[in-house]
Please model this.
Amino acid sequence: MEKRGNILTGNIIFIILNLIFLTLLIVFIFRQGAGIVTLEQSYAKQISLVVDSAKPGMKITLDMKEAKDEGGEWFKENYPGSVRVDKNIITVKLSEKSSYSYSFFNDVELSVDVYPEGKVFILIKEKNE
Amino acid sequence: MNNRGEDQMIGAYWFVIIFIVAAAVVYMVSVFYGHPYDVRELEASILINNVADCISQKGELNKNLIEEGKFNSEFNTNLLKECNLNFNTEEVWKDTPQYYIVVSFFKGTEITKAVFSLEQGNSNLLSNCEIANEDYQRLAKCVTERFYSTSNNEQYLVEITSIVRKSEKNVK
Model:
């Protein structure tokens, strides 16, 4: 009777450890795919490509919901500065420690507004010399 | 006693296998997500579209480019301004331009010798186009497009080659 009990406990511990291992592995894979650093790069390049193909007068809306979800508290407090434009360089910053910049070649002026729900509105304007 | 010993051995062996699998998964995921998104080909294609829109509108060559049947060489000097382009890039590349664009015009069916050409950017990048191999991902990306346009009832074949380097931010 005692031996049976030991085998059962051993098996249960074994199964639980396996489940913990698999869960950690799956969480790791998902976190890597939607990590802040990957998102910053992806949004900076997306915005830069969209701006390159845009013409003055266009209004572009980009949904950065994932940035809001991943950025958490930091995004809630700093969302207006999460997408910045300096001359022809787009910088996306979704956390205190990281940011990603990418340049665009279309010589236009941008006006960027980020909203708390993660929406970004970009207005393309003719450059004033 | 023997059975118990065997069970423990199998348990330890199982965890070694699991550890190897975990290490392989972590390595593969890191390799996959560690590579930056390579958008250089897209950038080069968009650059071609922008230059094509500026050189030819509704199938007619830009009036500033060709006047009374003669190509205006000043258009080349002002190409970036005429086409609303800005080749400045991030601080990392401030000394070496990361773009190159060359536009060649061929008259009628004579496609061996260009009658006129425009170029702007870093011409050293042109040599990168000769090597199109998967092993040389760090070289610049080249895209070439051709289209026909007219001016004063003359037909021209326009060939645009656009090159984007920016390797540090697009390839590992």
Notes: Residues 1-33 of chain A form one domain. The radius of gyration of chain A is 23 Å.
